[in-house]
């Protein structure tokens, strides 16, 4: 149906008392056989689907509000509203509803829902008593009027009758005229009665009354009545605030007088609801639902009218980005856009989508890029709020803009880098702005909200862009504060001295903690890109310098970063940690913590417990080889003894596996041996090479199968070579190759090394302290003071 008179939006009221937009379509009133009655049908204008099918019930209370709204309830907690594009369409449907219910279309409500008990209560009342008779509007009758208004609030029927009575003969305007008289006479008693009357009329919750009370010539008198709360010694000065303190600023002149009036009205009504009226009690909660709806639809209308005025918004953005614009003017422009975006939150998803697309087309992001880099703190704060609205609405839109920016030689001009610098340079001691910006950055780099994008390559392209142009800006403070780390050899015996580069400044420590939180998020979600960055920049070593910080929360952030890396169980990371000996600062922090039971102690122990439980062999071997002597004194947990146990089990397993392979090589079936001998005649008489066994251990079973068993010296050679040679104490690094990988295990001088891949086993001497350890385990578990390493 192309008739715009019948074009409507369907709204439902949700549990939070907010209106949800169910779609736009065209309404009709038709007899539906299935429902056995005349019904309201709304079909979507996009695909013709049925948005609403509601039978006009004779007992349902329908309300007409603001000339273009029809509101009703279909169940106890299910409210519906039709918002018409044109008044004529609303009147047409309203007449149809009134016709079905046998009501006068001049009324704004067909009837009030009442429960059975109330119906029974009014059954015996004479018909004439249903008409509420208002006392004459005179000074001497104000107390009587106030009592009447207060008494009807508990009865839906009487509220409706009173509302109808108030609408007749301009009673509201007469009451407000009495207010002016009372104020001139300083009649406090009369003013207190007027407060009760006006407050009660608001609680009648009738849109028709609101239209009168909030009109330009009445609203300030309504506010004046609400100043004289009897509970206050002195009246509040709300009118003075609204007329003198609160100034309406037109950053760009608004030529539409209706729009200007709507903005004034909405601000003042919002002020009445939020500031003047007391917080409603449980009993009064629903009394102001119509007031909330009144404000809601006003805001929707304001946003729509501004959005349709292309000249106005174009001029706003032109002045916002113009270098000649004065700072004060630019501040007002930014605040206007911020308020505009805040109003847009009342829109439903599809309308909000159109709203932000309009802003994007007008150049909101290039404008933000300019104003976020300015020195004015108020401008930057408002720009940050606008940016948060955009990121929360559509991260993909922001990412698309960022990647389309011309690549300048100076990366500082990129929007994301401007945001990062804003975060780094936040002057707030509590870093409130930095925390907000960090959350926005996290949203932008989160792959989870890239998956549903129509652009399937968005994740790869954006992350490549971010790590190339932006990551160095994010990590700059971290690298700068850990630039002169001293070698671990400078810290003898776990000395508890501070590293001179660790930030003692609390604000700097907070900033580094935020950066580490973001980097930890990257480790968890970015895999390849962050792994390459960590390896190239040796980032983990720099982060672990912060384990020396006097700020425990920062040391915990550094530890959390390492824990996330180890939690991935990635051998590339493991080899990097082993090669750099990066457990040393963690173990030093544990030993320096001494006998204190605190979060740092528990977090470090949990890290080693994870390695033990997950049986990460390469890390277990490295820890036991290099640090077990320093850790064996810690007996209040069994974590480190458990690591040693895992280490010994792995050594035994490899030894048994080697022996089994040797036995299998000697006990081949005769048929298999003949087959191999025929195939490999040229190898007869050869001995098995000792070095080949250790280099190609993963293929050793096949190699032994190929060996000739017939020669006695061959068998003897296999037996002799089964004994692993001890590694000379002077060897610092042993490089072991296999058919699949090459792993380098770093060890301290004079310390044996365990191969972590499937390679030949190093033969360790028997532990002479086995019996002593068994006796120690029988002793009561207690925490010992840290022993020097």
What does this structure look like?
Belongs to the SMEK family. This protein is of the alpha+beta class and 789 residues long. It has a seven-stranded antiparallel β-sheet with strand order 4-3-2-1-7-6-5, covered by helices on one side. A two-stranded antiparallel ribbon has the order 8-9. Helix 16 runs parallel beside helix 19 (432-444), helix 21 packs across helix 22 (506-526) and helix 28 runs parallel beside helix 30 (639-666). The longest helix is centred in the last third of the chain and has 28 residues, at 639-666. Residues 113-130, 485-501 and 679-789 have low confidence and may be disordered.
Give a nutshell description of this structure.
With 789 residues, this protein is α+β, with helices and mostly antiparallel strands. Helices cover 55% and strands 8% of the residues.
Distance between the termini: 85 Å
Largest sheet: 7 strands, antiparallel
Strand % is 5-15%
Oligomer: single chain
Structural class by sheet pairing and helices: alpha+beta
| Count of beta strands | 9
Number of helices: 35
Lateral strand order in the biggest sheet: 4-3-2-1-7-6-5
Low-confidence stretches: 113-130, 485-501, 679-789
Which shape, going by the Cα principal axes?
elongated
Instruction: Please estimate the helix content.
Output: 40-55%
What is the alpha-carbon Rg in Å?
40 Å
How confident is the prediction overall: mean pLDDT? 78
Helix and strand arrangement:
Layout (H helix, E strand, L loop, with lengths): L6 E7 L5 E14 L4 E8 L5 E6 L6 E4 L3 E7 L2 E7 L2 H15 L14 H8 L18 H10 L4 H12 L3 H15 L2 H16 L3 H7 L5 H7 L12 H8 L11 H20 L12 H20 L1 H12 L5 H18 L4 H14 L1 H8 L5 H17 L1 H10 L10 H10 L7 H13 L13 H12 L1 H10 L25 H21 L1 H10 L1 H6 L7 H16 L3 H9 L4 H9 L6 H15 L3 H15 L7 H28 L3 H10 L10 H6 L4 H7 L5 H10 L11 E5 L4 E5 L23 H9 L11
Antiparallel strand pairs: 1-2, 1-7, 2-3, 3-4, 5-6, 6-7, 8-9
Helix pairs in contact: 3-6, 5-6, 10-11, 12-13, 13-16, 16-17, 16-19, 17-20, 18-19, 19-22, 21-22, 22-23, 22-25, 25-28, 28-30, 29-30, 30-33
């Amino acid at each position: 149906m192309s008739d715009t008179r019948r074009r409507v939006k369907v709204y439902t009221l949700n549990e939070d008392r907010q209106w949800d937009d169910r779609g736009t379509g065209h309404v009709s009133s038709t007899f539906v056989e299935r429902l056995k009655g005349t019904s309201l049908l709304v079909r979507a204008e996009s695909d013709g689907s049925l948005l609403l099918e509601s039978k006009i019930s004779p007992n349902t209370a329908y309300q007409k509000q603001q000339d273009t709204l029809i509101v009703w309830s279909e169940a106890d907690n299910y409210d519906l509203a039709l918002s018409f594009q044109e008044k004529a369409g609303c009147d047409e449907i309203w007449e149809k509803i009134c016709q079905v219910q046998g009501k006068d279309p001049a009324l704004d409500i067909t009837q009030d829902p009442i429960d059975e008990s109330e119906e029974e209560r009014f059954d015996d009342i004479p018909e004439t008593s249903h008409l509420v008779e208002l006392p004459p509007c005179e000074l001497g009758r104000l107390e009587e009027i106030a009592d009447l208004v207060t008494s009807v609030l508990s009865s839906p029927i009487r509220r409706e009758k009173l509302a109808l009575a108030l609408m007749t003969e301009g009673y509201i305007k007469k009451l407000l005229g009495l207010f002016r008289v009372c104020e001139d006479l300083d009649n406090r008693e009369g003013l207190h009665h007027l407060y009760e009357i006006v407050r009660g009329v608001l609680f009648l919750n009738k849109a028709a009354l609101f239209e009168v009370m909030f009109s330009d010539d009445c609203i300030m008198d309504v506010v004046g009545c609400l100043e004289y709360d009897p509970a206050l010694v002195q009246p509040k000065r709300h009118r003075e605030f609204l007329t003198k303190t609160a100034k309406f600023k037109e950053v760009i002149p608004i030529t539409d007088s209706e729009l200007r009036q709507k903005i004034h009205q909405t601000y003042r009504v919002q002020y009445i609801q939020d500031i003047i009226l007391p917080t409603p009690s449980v009993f009064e909660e629903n009394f102001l639902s119509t007031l909330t709806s009144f404000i809601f639809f006003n805001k929707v209308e304001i946003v729509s009218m501004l959005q349709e005025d292309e000249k106005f918004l174009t001029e706003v953005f032109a002045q916002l980005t113009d270098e000649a614009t004065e700072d004060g003017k630019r501040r007002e422009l930014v605040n206007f856009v911020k308020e505009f975006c805040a109003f847009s939150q009342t829109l439903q998803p599809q309308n909000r989508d159109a709203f932000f697309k309009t802003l994007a087309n007008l150049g909101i992001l290039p404008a933000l890029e300019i104003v976020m880099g300015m020195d004015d703190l108020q401008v930057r704060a408002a720009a940050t709020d606008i940016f948060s609205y955009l990121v929360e609405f559509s991260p993909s839109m922001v990412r698309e803009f960022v990647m389309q920016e011309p690549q300048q030689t100076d990366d500082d001009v990129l929007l994301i880098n401007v945001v990062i610098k804003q975060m780094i340079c936040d002057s707030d001691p509590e870093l409130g702005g930095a925390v907000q910006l960090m959350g926005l950055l996290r949203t932008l780099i989160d792959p989870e909200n890239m998956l549903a994008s129509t652009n399937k390559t968005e994740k790869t392209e954006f992350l490549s862009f971010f790590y190339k142009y932006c990551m160095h800006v994010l990590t700059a403070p971290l690298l700068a504060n850990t630039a002169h780390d001293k070698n671990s050899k400078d810290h003898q015996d776990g000395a508890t001295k501070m590293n001179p580069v660790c930030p003692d400044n609390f604000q700097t420590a907070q900033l580094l903690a935020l950066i580490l939180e973001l980097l930890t998020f990257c480790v968890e979600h970015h895999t390849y890109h962050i792994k390459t960055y960590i390896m190239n920049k040796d980032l983990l070593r720099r982060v672990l310098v912060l384990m020396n910080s006097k700020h425990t929360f920062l040391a915990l952030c550094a530890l959390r970063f390492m824990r996330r890396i180890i939690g991935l169980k990635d051998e590339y990371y493991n080899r990097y940690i082993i090669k750099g000996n990066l457990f040393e600062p963690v173990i030093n922090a544990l030993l320096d913590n001494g006998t204190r039971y605190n979060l740092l102690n528990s977090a470090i122990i949990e890290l080693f417990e994870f390695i033990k439980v997950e049986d990460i062999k390469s890390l277990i071997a490295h820890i036991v080889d290099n640090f077990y002597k320093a850790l064996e004194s810690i007996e209040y947990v069994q974590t480190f003894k458990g690591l040693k146990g895992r280490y010994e089990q792995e050594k035994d397993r490899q030894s048994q596996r080697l022996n089994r392979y040797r036995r299998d090589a000697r006990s081949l079936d005769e048929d298999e041996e003949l087959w191999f001998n025929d195939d490999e005649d040229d190898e007869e008489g050869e001995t098995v090479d000792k070095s080949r066994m250790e280099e190609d251990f993963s293929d050793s079973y096949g190699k032994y199968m190929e060996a000739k068993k017939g020669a006695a010296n061959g068998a003897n050679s296999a037996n002799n070579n089964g004994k692993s040679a001890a590694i000379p104490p002077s060897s610092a690094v042993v490089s072991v190759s296999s058919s699949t990988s090459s792993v380098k295990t770093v060890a301290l001088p004079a310390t044996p090394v365990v191969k972590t891949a499937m390679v030949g086993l190093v033969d360790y001497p028997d532990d002479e302290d086995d019996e002593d350890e068994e006796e120690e385990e029988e002793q009561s578990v207690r925490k010992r003071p840290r022993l020097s390493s």
